[in-house]
Design a protein that fits this description.
78 residues, 2 helices, YefM-like fold, alpha+beta, 3-stranded mixed sheet
């Protein structure tokens, strides 16, 4: 369950709120004038360099480091 907090409260209690996110494994929605502007979520234990929302979506390699974009950039410069 997500908790909502105003940006002013985040500023005043940042460390405590971040600790709560990590300990309770919940997300924190930050609002400014009542409108959501950011989301703070806990890090996955043992996560690699790929965000969990993108995990399993790479085609052609297991890691972002497997992709060489040098040839693409060279072609685009011509």
């Amino acid at each position: 369950m997500a908790k909502t907090v105003a940006i002013s409260e985040l500023k005043a209690r940042c460390l405590r709120l971040i600790d709560d996110v990590a300990r309770q494994r919940c997300e924190l929605i930050v609002t400014k004038r009542g409108k959501p502007i950011a989301r703070v979520v806990p890090m996955d234990a043992g996560a690699d360099d790929v965000p969990s929302g993108l995990r399993g979506t790479l085609v052609g390699g297991d890691s972002v480091a497997d992709f060489d974009t040098g040839a693409i950039w060279s072609a685009a410069r011509r």
